[in-house]
Amino acid sequence: MSKSWEQLEHYQPTVLKMIGNSIQKGRVSHAYLFEGSRGTGKREVSILFAKSLFCLNRSDYKPCNDCSNCRRISSGNHPDIHIVEPDGLSIKKGQIQALQEEFSKTGVESNKKLYIIDHADKMTTNAANSLLKFLEEPGKQTVAILLTEQVHRMLNTILSRCQVLPFKPLSPHVIAGRLQENGFNATVAHLVAHVTNNLEDATDLCKDDSFAQSRKIVLQLYEVLINRPGNALFFIQDKWLTHFKEKEELFLGLDLLLLVYKDLLFIQLGDEDKVIYSDIIQELKQQALITSGKRVCDQIEAILEAKKRLNTNMNPHLLMEQLVFKLQEGLKLV
């Protein structure tokens, strides 16, 4: 289902405000570049922008989402709106030339035309140079929207001809809210929202049984460290390393563990509303009473240092053994 202006404005208020002002004042640029990480709403906003330009019943700058033009844009069937995507690994010169040829014709229903180039950074050099010529001589009512996750890979000459609109990563509050709207458990939604700022990845994690198991193992490790410290190394060997096998999985495990100790710190600081593992808050409160703030800070620093070392391809078994010792001692890694 297409999202409304109000919904997307909640995710990217600055971008939507700039677009709304441009439409309202009749100062729509001939080319825009939406740049930001995956899952920040670039494609959705580009479709919404298209609707605003073609809507038959627009209210100020907001599309109605219900007229024939809005419905056709939602279904990808409007004849004067074209979307170019990578053909395989790249966008090729022939795709841009075909787009230029299409846009040399009169609009099917009006003189307005709009094209969206998704993953614009994946254009070949020839395709980018071909697009550059297109941008230098835009049609009077032609609008281009380029989408990219890697703006540094775009030609400076293309960037200089576009109005660049940066899309900010979504906040944990926004992601958690969206996940709950989609029917996911609030506890899991808040946890997922703090390990990724990508809504698509967050949704995938919520659906992944392996993530639920990851959370379980992390909390088990924490319980072992507190109540059965002598079993911690065996737990790492028997449970942790058999579940968190790949580097990306290990990073996730460390991120989830880090949030446990951050929760302890929040409780000590009186910020219980910020606690992520709310379902074990009573256990965390008990531990927060018998440990010092300095020790918790040292434990947090130990996990952050372990994450850095993981990037150096340090042996995971040795890494986790050292981390366990430091978490038990509350000292920094050496």
TrEMBL record:
Keyword Protease appears in the UniProt entry: no
Catalytic activity as recorded in UniProt: DNA(n) + a 2'-deoxyribonucleoside 5'-triphosphate = DNA(n+1) + diphosphate
Signal sequence range: none
GO-annotated molecular function: DNA-directed DNA polymerase activity
Name of a matching Pfam family: DNA_pol3_delta2
InterPro entries xref list: DNA_pol_HolB, DNA_pol_III_delta_C, DNA_Rep/Repair_Clamp_Loader, P-loop_NTPase
Name this protein carries in UniProt: DNA polymerase III subunit delta'
Taxonomic lineage: Bacteria, Bacillati, Bacillota, Bacilli, Bacillales
Gene label: holB
